[in-house]
C-alpha cells in the first residue's frame, strides 16, 4: 500500500522530517545535521515533494548510497500529494518569455554567443553557480583576456590546402586539441545533465573529463559513452581515503583512461554570485535580521568532504592504487611542474579552476609560457604532458596554447552554457564552430598539422604585463555579468 501524501505531510519539521523524491518517501530526520548543504534547504521541503530541488544537486544513487535502508519508507501515491503551490513569479514569467524569444541556434556564431543567451534564459541560481568566480572575479576575466595579449606571427605561402588538426592526448587520438573539462552539477543547466556532454564529445571525437560532483551518476555517464570513446575522471580527494580508493578503482574498472586530481581546491573559493543567488532563491528574509544561510551557495554545499590536508606526500599512494596515468589539475607555477615531474606523474593542467578559487591567480596560458621556458632550458619538455584551461573561447586561443607547448586545452563554461541554452544541439554546434575556426586559423597561420605549431608563430612579449589593450566593448566584456551589491527592500509602492 503506497503512503498517502497526507501522511507524509505530517512529517514537516525537524523532529520528524520526511521528504518525497521521485515518488518515494524518505525519513531524513537524523540526516538533517549531516546534510552538506545545511538543514534549512531540506526543511523547506519537509513533508513535501523535493524532487525538483534534489535532482540537479544529487546523483540519482545518492539516497541508496548515503541513507540507511531503514529510512527508505517506500512508494507514495502521488495523486494524493498536494501540488506545490505555484506562487506568481513575474521574474520567472519573463524568463519563460525570453526562452521563447531566444535567438535561433544558427544565430550563435561563437562560444560567447551561448553565454549571452544562457545569461538571459537560465534560472538565476543555476546561472549564479556556473558563471560565478572567486572574490572580485579578476582572475575570471584575466583568463580570457590573457589570450588577447598574445599575437600571431603567421607564415605565408605555405600550401595549406589540406589541414589536419587531430592530435593525441595521454594516448587518446582526438579530432581537435580540446577536451570537455570537469564541471559539476550539469543538471542545473539541463535536466539531462552531463550525459549530453558525453554524446557531443562522442560525435566530435573529443575526450570528456567526468567530474566527481556530477549531477548524473558516474555510471550513467560511463554508460552513455559509446564504443571506444575515451573518458577521464576528475577527482576531489575525500578525507576518507577508503571512499577515494573505491571511486578510483571503480573508474579504472569502468574503463576511464586517466585520473585528474584537483589540487587547487583545499577550500572552495568565495563565489559571491553563487552565494547571493542561493540566498535569494531560498527566500530568506534579508531584512529581518535572520542569520544568513550557512550553506553559502551550491559550490560550498557540495564540497565539504574535500580533504584540505592533501599534499605531495599522498602522490605515491595514488600511484599505488591505480595504473591510470595521474595528472594534477590546478598547477599554477613552474616550480610545481618540476615537482610533478620529480614525483613521476604523467601530466599537469595549468589551471586556476576557471577563476573560481584564488583570485589574482595567473591565467593558465601565462603559467604555460613561464613553465615551457623553464622546461626547455632543463631539457624536460617531453617528460610530462601539459594541458591548460581557463578562458578558452576561440580556436585561436587553442592554437596559441599549442604554439607555447600545451598538448591540449580544457573548455568548461562554454559547453555548459551551450547545453543550458540549446541542449545537445547547442553543444554540438559549439564544438562544430570551434572546428570551423580551427581549420580556418590553421590555414591563416600557415600550418597544416598541430606538430608544426611552435613558439616562433606567436609574439608573447606583452603576456606578463597584465594590461590588455583590447577595446572594453569586446564580446567578452559584453557578456560578462558584473557583481552586484546586496539589494535593498523594494520601495513600498511596489509591494
Ligand atoms: C560550473 C563549474 C563547475 C566546475 N566544477 C569543477 C569540479 O567539480 N572539479 C574541478 O576540478 N573543476 C571544476 N571546475 C573548473 C573547470 O574544470 C575548469 O578548470 C574551468 O571551468 C576552466 O575555465 P572555463 O570555464 O573558462 O573554460 C568547474 C568550473 C565551472 C565553471
Automatic annotation (TrEMBL):
Residues 103-463 form the FMN hydroxy acid dehydrogenase domain. It catalyses: (S)-lactate + 2 Fe(III)-[cytochrome c] = 2 Fe(II)-[cytochrome c] + pyruvate + 2 H(+). It is found in: Mitochondrion intermembrane space. Residues 1-77 form the Cytochrome b5 heme-binding domain. GO terms for molecular function: heme binding; L-lactate dehydrogenase (cytochrome) activity; metal ion binding. Its main location: mitochondrion. InterPro entries: Aldolase_TIM, Cyt_B5-like_heme/steroid-bd, Cyt_B5-like_heme/steroid_sf, Cyt_B5_heme-BS, FMN-dep_DH, FMN_HAD, FMN_hydac_DH_AS, L-MDH/L-LDH_FMN-bd. It comes from the Eukaryota. Gene3D superfamilies: Aldolase class I (3.20.20.70), Cytochrome b5-like heme/steroid binding domain (3.10.120.10). One of its GO terms (cellular component) is mitochondrial intermembrane space. Its EC number is 1.1.2.3. Its cofactor is FMN; heme b. CDD domains: FCB2_FMN (cd02922). Keywords: Flavoprotein, FMN, Heme, Iron, Metal-binding, Mitochondrion, Oxidoreductase. PROSITE patterns: CYTOCHROME_B5_1, CYTOCHROME_B5_2, FMN_HYDROXY_ACID_DH_1, FMN_HYDROXY_ACID_DH_2. It is an enzyme of class 1 (oxidoreductase). Homotetramer. In the N-terminal section; belongs to the cytochrome b5 family. This is L-lactate dehydrogenase (cytochrome).
Amino acid at each position: 500500500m503506497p503512503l498517502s501524501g497526507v501522511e507524509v505531510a505530517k512529517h514537516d519539521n525537524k523532529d520528524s522530517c520526511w521528504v518525497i523524491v521521485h515518488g518515494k518517501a524518505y525519513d531524513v530526520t537524523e540526516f538533517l545535521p549531516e546534510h552538506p548543504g545545511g538543514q534549512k534547504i531540506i526543511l523547506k521541503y519537509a513533508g513535501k515533494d523535493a524532487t525538483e530541488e534534489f535532482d540537479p544537486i544529487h546523483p540519482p544513487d545518492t539516497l541508496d548510497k548515503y541513507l540507511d535502508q531503514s529510512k527508505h519508507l517506500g512508494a507514495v501515491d502521488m495523486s494524493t500529494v498536494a501540488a506545490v503551490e505555484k506562487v506568481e513569479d513575474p521574474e520567472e514569467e519573463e524568463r519563460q518569455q525570453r526562452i521563447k524569444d531566444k535567438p535561433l541556434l544558427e544565430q550563435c556564431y561563437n562560444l560567447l554567443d551561448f553565454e549571452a543567451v544562457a545569461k538571459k534564459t537560465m534560472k538565476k541560481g543555476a546561472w549564479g553557480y556556473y558563471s560565478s568566480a572567486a572574490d572580485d572575479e579578476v582572475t575570471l576575466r584575466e583568463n580570457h583576456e590573457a589570450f588577447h595579449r598574445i599575437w600571431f606571427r603567421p607564415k605565408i605561402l605555405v600550401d595549406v590546402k589540406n589541414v589536419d588538426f587531430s592530435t593525441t592526448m595521454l594516448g587518446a587520438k582526438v579530432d581537435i586539441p580540446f577536451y570537455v573539462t570537469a564541471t559539476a552539477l550539469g543538471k542545473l543547466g539541463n535536466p539531462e545533465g552531463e550525459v549530453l556532454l558525453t554524446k557531443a564529445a562522442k560525435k566530435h571525437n573529443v575526450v570528456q573529463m567526468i567530474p566527481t560532483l556530477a549531477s548524473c551518476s558516474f555510471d550513467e555517464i560511463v554508460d552513455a559513452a559509446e564504443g571506444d570513446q575515451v573518458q577521464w575522471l576528475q577527482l576531489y580527494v575525500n578525507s576518507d581515503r577508503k571512499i577515494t580508493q573505491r571511486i578510483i578503482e571503480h573508474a579504472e574498472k569502468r574503463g576511464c583512461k586517466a585520473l585528474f586530481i584537483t589540487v587547487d581546491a583545499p577550500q572552495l573559493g568565495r563565489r559571491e554570485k553563487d552565494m547571493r543567488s542561493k540566498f535569494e532563491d531560498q527566500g530568506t528574509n534579508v531584512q529581518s535580521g535572520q542569520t544568513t544561510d550557512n550553506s553559502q551557495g551550491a559550490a560550498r554545499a557540495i564540497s565539504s568532504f574535500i580533504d584540505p590536508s592533501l599534499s605531495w606526500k599522498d602522490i605515491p599512494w595514488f600511484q599505488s592504487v591505480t595504473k591510470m596515468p595521474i595528472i594534477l589539475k590546478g598547477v599554477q607555477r613552474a616550480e610545481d611542474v618540476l615537482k610533478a615531474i620529480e614525483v613521476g606523474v604523467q601530466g599537469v593542467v595549468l589551471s586556476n579552476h576557471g577563476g573560481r578559487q584564488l583570485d589574482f591567480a595567473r591565467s593558465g596560458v601565462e603559467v604555460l609560457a613561464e613553465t615551457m621556458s623553464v622546461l626547455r632550458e632543463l631539457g624536460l619538455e617531453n617528460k610530462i604532458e601539459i594541458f591548460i584551461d581557463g578562458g578558452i573561447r576561440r580556436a585561436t586561443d587553442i592554437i596559441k596554447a599549442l604554439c607555447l607547448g600545451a598538448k591540449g586545452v580544457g573548455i568548461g563554461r562554454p559547453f555548459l552554457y551551450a547545453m543550458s541554452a540549446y541542449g545537445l544541439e547547442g553543444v554540438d554546434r559549439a564544438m562544430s564552430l570551434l572546428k570551423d575556426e580551427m581549420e580556418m586559423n590553421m590555414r591563416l597561420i600557415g600550418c597544416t598539422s598541430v606538430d608544426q605549431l611552435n613558439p616562433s608563430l606567436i609574439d608573447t612579449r606583452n603576456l606578463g604585463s597584465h594590461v590588455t589593450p583590447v577595446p572594453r566593448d569586446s564580446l567578452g566584456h559584453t557578456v560578462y555579468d558584473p557583481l552586484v551589491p546586496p539589494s535593498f527592500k523594494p520601495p513600498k509602492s511596489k509591494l
